[in-house]
Design brief:
It contains twelve helices and five strands. The protein is mostly helical. The chain has two domains: 2-209, Rhomboid-like fold; 224-271, no CATH class. It has a three-stranded antiparallel sheet. A two-stranded antiparallel ribbon has the order 4-5. A hairpin with a 6-residue loop joins strand 2 (154-157) and strand 3.
């Protein structure tokens, strides 16, 4: 990489602290999964089932998949491409921003890509709620767009093509190609996650970590709405059960949360007796 007007030099980026750790974590998990696969151990399938990002499992409580999917990769080229992008562009951002902000950017991209995948699959726009997603591309694409925004005038060589292109144009082409492939179905590649990583990486650079994570927090609001729906269903079921029992000359009572009130507590209710049960 070089700035416009500088003499052309070919150099490799350094292995900075956060980049080295991220490379080590992803590579260790990849090699472990390859070894387990070569040994034909059934645990490989269980690991993918519980750690890969599957939207229908995420909305049923498997929240850790919003992060763990990023350390799983489907083949050598998938792993190598992500690790190459992380090293080539992540080291420059870490050198300019520091370790903490590079890790924040990467995680915002990973979680943002996961949230995008889940949301669009359930909106029936792109993807399938039953289709698992793996790979660190969300975090890597967040780093790519951040690099294009921060070092837009630097020129990079399009290996294996022998010509240079400014980083901002490279990122622009990347976004256009990714969007086209996502709209076209994308085959077995999760281009929807790539778009999510690009979007949340852009948010992080433009608005900072708090604003970017506030958008990731939309998923938390979704779960709040979901819990409110289930609480409403429980209250409605409690009211129906009260009516049913009155029809059979029996009295039962539930509190405003749908929790059953034992008869002895119901009698003490007027004297400040406490409610029973847990409140979700």
């Amino acid at each position: 990489m070089r700035r416009t007007g500088e003499p052309m030099t070919l150099s490799l980026p350094p292995f900075t602290r956060a980049v080295t750790w991220l490379l080590g974590i992803n590579t260790s998990v990849f090699l472990l999964m390859e070894l387990l696969g070569m040994a034909r151990l059934p645990i490989v399938g269980y690991i993918f089932d519980y750690l890969a990002l599957t939207p229908t499992m995420v909305v049923h409580g498997f929240i850790w998949q919003l992060v763990t999917y990023s350390v799983l990769h489907a083949g050598v080229m998938h792993w190598f491409g992500n690790m190459l992008g992380l090293w080539m562009f992540g080291s420059a951002i870490e050198s300019a921003w520091g370790t903490r902000r590079l890790v924040e950017l990467y995680l915002v991209g990973v979680v943002g890509a996961a949230v995008t995948t889940v949301a669009l699959s359930y909106a029936h726009i792109l993807g399938n709620p039953l289709q698992p997603t793996v790979g660190a591309s969300g975090g890597v694409f967040a780093i790519l767009i951040a690099f294009g925004m921060l070092f837009g005038d630097q020129e990079i060589m399009m290996i294996p093509f022998p010509f240079l292109i400014k980083a901002k144009y490279f990122v622009g082409i990347l976004i256009a190609v990714t969007l086209a492939l996502a709209l076209g179905g994308g085959g077995n590649v999760a281009y929807v996650a790539h778009l999510g990583g690009l979007f949340f990486g852009w948010l992080y650079v433009r608005r900072g970590p708090r604003r970017a994570m506030a958008n990731v927090g939309l998923m938390e609001r979704y779960y709040g709405w979901k819990n409110s729906y289930y609480r409403w269903k429980r209250r409605r079921a409690a009211r129906k059960f009260e009516v049913y029992m009155r029809q059979h000359d029996r009295q039962v009572h539930f509190d405003e949360h749908g929790n059953y009130i034992p008869p002895e507590d119901d009698q003490r209710k007027g004297n400040g007796g406490g409610k029973s049960g847990w409140v979700n």
